[in-house]
Amino acid sequence: MKALYIASTGMSAQERNVEVISNNIANMRTTGFKRQRAEFQDLLYQQIRRAGSQTSDEGTMLPAGLEIGSGVRTVATPRIMSQGSVVATEKELDLAVRGEGFFVVEMPDGTAAYTRDGAFERDDQGRLVNSSGYPVQPGITIPQDAVSVSVSADGLVQAYIGNDAFPTQLGQLQLARFVNKAGLASIGDNLFNATAASGEAQIGLPKANGTGDLLQGYLEQANVNSVTEIADLIAAQRAYEMNARVISGADEMLRSATQMS
């Protein structure tokens, strides 16, 4: 009975849906995390009677066809790239992007990766790095005797060094934009890689060309809404239960048919 296999695809799809929801909930406190959602498509249909086919020699046609679907499948888990809320941390190297841009970091193999996580630190050489130790690009080095570091909304990094009366410019932060942010590939550690779907990174200055501005002493929180996720989880659980009931019902029908034979 096809109903068994159709319902099984529904259960499999809802299992994947719950996995996506659980990952969102697990990352509710992850800086700069962007939630995902599962998207589904129906499978192929068996055409038993095709709509528009002729039903008599006089040319009458079927106004509606008879077709049986094969179930459902998960086709994508796009990220929702909406802005997360920003919270004050009072840490001078914490930065939040208010807009479309991504920070650029250099990976150990020399390639670029992109992140919304602006929890930066200084390494043993004074370089500005992310929490995994990857240098922020373009490279910025903060001297050991820097008294304070300031980052303007347009990415200009300055510091008072020693007893200097005026700040010294240390560098200029840049941000990356993408035509299709949802096409970025997640690689873990709050990092993304560009793909053919996302398009090449468009590097620019903060506050220019829609990249957004920077907030020093703030971090962007995950854009996960706990109420929404719980509601989605309940809906997924109910859909799973209904598909399980279909399997139980189909099994009872097969048992009845077997007993009649």
From TrEMBL:
GO terms for cellular component: bacterial-type flagellum basal body, distal rod. Keywords: Bacterial flagellum, Cell projection, Cilium, Flagellum. Its main location: other. It comes from the Bacteria. Residues 216-260 form the Flagellar basal-body/hook protein C-terminal domain. It holds the Pfam family Flg_bb_rod. It is found in: Bacterial flagellum basal body. InterPro entries: Flag_bb_rod_N (IPR001444), Flagellar_basal_body_rod_CS (IPR019776), Flagellar_FlgE/F/G (IPR020013), Flg_bb/hook_C_dom (IPR010930), FlgE/F/G-like (IPR037925), FlgG_G_neg (IPR012834), LlgE_F_G-like_D1 (IPR053967). Residues 96-159 form the Flagellar hook protein FlgE/F/G-like D1 domain. Residues 4-34 form the Flagellar basal body rod protein N-terminal domain. One of its GO terms (biological process) is bacterial-type flagellum-dependent swarming motility. PROSITE patterns: FLAGELLA_BB_ROD. Belongs to the flagella basal body rod proteins family. The basal body constitutes a major portion of the flagellar organelle and consists of four rings (L,P,S, and M) mounted on a central rod. The rod consists of about 26 subunits of FlgG in the distal portion, and FlgB, FlgC and FlgF are thought to build up the proximal portion of the rod with about 6 subunits each. PANTHER family: FLAGELLAR BASAL-BODY ROD PROTEIN FLGG, FLAGELLAR PROTEIN. This is Flagellar basal-body rod protein FlgG. It comes from Devosia geojensis.
